[in-house]
Structures are given as C-alpha cells and as structure tokens.
Specification:
215 residues, alpha+beta, 6-stranded antiparallel beta sheet, 6 strands, globular
Length: 215
C-alpha cells in the first residue's frame, strides 16, 4: 500500500511520535489568541535523502501525494536540496492544521519505509505582533520542540552562512558566524509562554540554532 492508502485511512503508520508533533496544532490556538503570535503560512521538514531506488521511490510518492492532497486545501508544496545534501520539503498555506497534517504525512511515510533515522526536524514558522520571526523546531530524534528566535535578518537562504549547515546545528556541532545571532532571552520567554501546550526540550543545550531556514 502507498501513501494514498495511508491518507485514506487504510493503514496505520507507526510515525515518529505523531501525538507530539500534533501538539503544535493545539498550541497554535494559544499562540494566536493569547500571545499575538501568528503563523507565517509555512512549514518545512528536513531529511537526509539516500540515493537508493527504494528511498527515492518513497520520497517521490510522498511528494506527489502530498502535492495532490494539498491542492484541495490551497496549500502549495515545493522541495529543494541545500548545499549540505539535505532535502527541504516546504508547505505553504493559510490553513495551519493542513500544514501540520502534511508534515506528519511525510514523516510518517519515511518512518514506515524504515527511514525514520533520515529525518532531521520539522520547522514551523511564526511571527509576533512586531513581525519578528519565531520558529518552533521539532527534533525527531528527541521527540521535543524548542523555540528558535533569530535576530534581525540573520536567517539566510538555505545553505548560506557559516558552519557545516543545518544538520550540524541540530547535532550541536559547529559555530555561528558573527552575523548570525539569536535572542536567547526571548526563547526562554517563548518556552514559558508555551507552558504545557508543547513537549519542550528540557535540556537547553539541545536548543540548537538552525541557520539557513528557507521559510
């Protein structure tokens, strides 16, 4: 059975803690109504592709079906590979719930195919009342969210900036350049505001910056 069967409910997938991923949907209600934090209409999932026939077939099927189903909700889907060998699958649309469903469909299919270890993270883009970007990042290997608040125009296009790229940031390696700054104090405030709405990474040293976010 393919991804279409999954979406139609014919097969249950052992996805990577989908209940935790979907926590961002309920948390968004609080973000929007109480914190004046709104979605930027975009979310992305990052994974490390393999150049094997099986893996490429799964990815192709996943992208085609997500694109087909997303068109029904006016959500667009695009994909690109960054210079570090990672694939970004980006969903854009006004319906935040559909963005979460689409991201979960991708991760679920990769997990079902035995490639859950290739998943890096899911990224959900928000902004506050001052239009400052806020990212909530879901680390698949840890099963936790954490906030990332870049300062000013420090979020480059995919692959730009110093260091070894997005993957090394999640792994905790590398260092950012002087023009890449994050607001740690603001991130702690965001954690407090999220309260019990999200499963937040308890170890602050694992709140790795993800530079080069294209959303």
């Amino acid at each position: 059975m393919g991804l279409l069967d999954v979406i139609l409910g014919r097969r249950k997938l052992p996805g990577p803690a989908p209940d935790r991923l979907f926590a961002i949907s309920t948390a968004y209600v609080t973000f929007e109504t109480q914190l004046q934090v709104t979605s930027r209409g975009a979310a992305g999932i990052v994974f490390h592709p393999l150049q094997t026939a099986d893996f490429l077939s799964i990815v192709k099927e996943t992208e085609e079906v997500v694109k087909a189903t997303a068109s029904d909700s006016a959500t667009t889907v695009e994909s690109s590979d960054d210079p570090y060998g990672y694939r970004w699958l980006i969903l854009r649309g006004k319906d935040f719930e559909q963005l979460v469903v689409g991201i979960n469909a991708v991760s679920g299919q990769l997990e079902a195919g035995g490639y859950g270890d290739r998943l890096l993270c899911a990224v959900f883009a928000f902004e506050d009342e001052r239009k400052r970007p806020i990212y909530w990042i879901y680390n698949y290997k840890r099963g936790f969210f954490y906030p990332f608040a870049p300062v000013g125009g420090t979020v480059a296009q995919a692959g730009e900036g110093a260091g070894a790229g997005p993957t090394s940031r999640i792994a905790g390696e590398g260092s950012s350049s002087s023009n890449q700054r994050r607001d740690n104090e603001r991130e702690l405030v965001l954690k407090a505001q999220a309260g019990s709405e999200l499963p937040v990474e308890p170890e602050l040293e694992r709140w790795f910056p993800l530079w080069g976010i294209p959303i």
